[in-house]
Amino acid sequence: MAKDDVFQFDTRSFERYMTRLEKQVLPQAQAGFLSGLAFDARKSLLKEADATIQGKPTAWTRKGFVVDKATPDSLEAVVRIQPQQAGYMTYLVNGGARKKGDVGATPYDVLTDAPDGEKNAYGNVKRGYLKRLSRQARVEKTKRARLAAKREKLRAAGKSTASARWAATSGKPGIFFGIVDGKKGYWQRAAKRDGDYKLKLLARMSDEAVYKPSFRWAETISASVKDSNPQKLYAAEITRALRKLNDG
């Protein structure tokens, strides 16, 4: 080799490749990394919902947990609850006062108390309890109206009304919706026990209900991120982005 021989390299292709890496691979990998963390957090939140909500969340509630994926142009991934489901979940996450007409309340009242046997470990009334009482009260009201009309006919005919009395036809004390001693709600009618007649409050209704937070939203997300393997996840996204670049 001559003393003054010179080696020359064309670095333009290498520079173009590095530019593509910088502009395509890294942003794509970062977006995939952030989206992966968000989807893992969503899984953890759904597990928290299974543990917190009595009877586990319905398909409608679970559908409300969504992820807005990050993109190379917007490196931000968000895990959130859809607006309709959020109207129900906000009281579990943040606490606060649910008022009549709000999601989870009736147009007229809010369920504020019930017997301990009808509550779950978090103090919330079991799913479907209020609907069951409401349906039972409506059905009973209709039946009692029919029995009242039948008694009128029997009286008019000079006959005994015993066969048209509620106790004779159902054998149960029954329930009703009303206000007793200033308390509005569903009541079980009096049943004679040892010469005493007592009403039992089955569900107390009010204009609003105050909740304490029971769903650990922020804590669950933080724990999910801490339990993840960021290096492994990011390396996988780099590999995926490089594969797309080379295939292209």
Summarize the structure.
The chain is an alpha+beta fold and 248 residues long. It has 7 helices and 8 strands.
- Number of DSSP helical runs: 7
What's the SSE pattern? HHEEHEEHHEEEEHH
Shape: rod-shaped
Helical/strand content category: alpha+beta
Q: What radius of gyration results from the CA coordinates?
A: 32 Å
Q: How much beta, percentage-wise? A: 15-25%
The helix content is 40-55%
Number of strands: 8
What's the end-to-end separation, in Å? 41 Å
Largest sheet: 4 strands, antiparallel
Instruction: Give the spatial strand order of the biggest sheet.
Output: 4-7-6-5
The poorly predicted ranges are none
Overall average residue pLDDT: 83
Features:
about 250 residues; two-stranded antiparallel ribbon; 7 helices; alpha+beta
Description:
The protein is an alpha+beta fold. Helix content is 48%, strand content 19%. It has helices spanning 12-52, 59-63, 83-94, 129-156, 166-170, 217-227, 230-247, and strands spanning 65-68, 78-81, 96-99, 110-113, 175-180, 183-193, 196-206, 208-211. A four-stranded antiparallel beta sheet has the order 4-7-6-5. α1 (12-52) packs across α6 (217-227) and α1 crosses α7. The protein is rod-shaped, with a radius of gyration of 32 Å.
